Backbone:
């Protein structure tokens, strides 16, 4: 049984239905939380992102979920992505410096876990879910340039080329990040 979060007030004013109303289980965790953290979970998140990408109120929904600290997928974002977006860029920079310093002290820079932006994490999910780069702009509701920037950021932070991003992300334990806070 799925939780029934209260919908954003602006949805009542719409003359058309929104994609999430047809498949709410993709967007909101069951009462006992998600149990599909593997391939099924990635497929669920990917499907939710695809439906969000075609929604006329995606930006408004995303903003509403950020302001109200909603649970689940709203406006094409997971809870982890919204949490990352809420933190200021200065805080992210400080966190990156702390993580890098701790990794250097431990002598373990090869497996340091970089802090990804919400957009980089979104693209990483799309790659992990099997979405092709050329399909990402439409599916994620972003420009091709924005997707390219995110991929460049992933490459730079992981120290690899585009083909090695997924392997390096798996090695560093980045592919399961959003599921730790979901549900």
Residues:
């Amino acid at each position: 049984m799925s939780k029934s979060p209260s919908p954003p007030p602006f949805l009542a004013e719409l003359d058309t239905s929104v994609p999430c109303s047809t498949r709410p289980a993709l967007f909101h965790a069951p009462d006992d939380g998600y149990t599909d953290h593997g391939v099924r979970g990635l497929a669920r998140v990917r499907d939710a992102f695809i439906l969000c990408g075609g929604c006329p109120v995606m930006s408004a929904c995303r903003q509403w979920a950020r302001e109200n600290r909603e649970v689940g997928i709203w406006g094409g974002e997971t809870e982890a992505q919204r949490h990352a977006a809420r933190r200021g860029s200065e805080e992210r920079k400080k966190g990156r410096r702390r993580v890098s310093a701790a990794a250097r002290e431990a002598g373990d820079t090869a497996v340091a876990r970089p802090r990804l932006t919400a957009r980089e994490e979104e693209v990483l999910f799309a790659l992990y879910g099997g979405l092709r780069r050329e399909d990402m702009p439409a599916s994620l509701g972003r420009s091709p340039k924005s997707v390219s920037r995110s991929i460049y950021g992933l490459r730079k932070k992981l120290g690899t080329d585009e083909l090695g991003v997924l392997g390096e992300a798996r090695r560093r334990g980045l592919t399961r990040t959003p599921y730790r806070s979901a549900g």
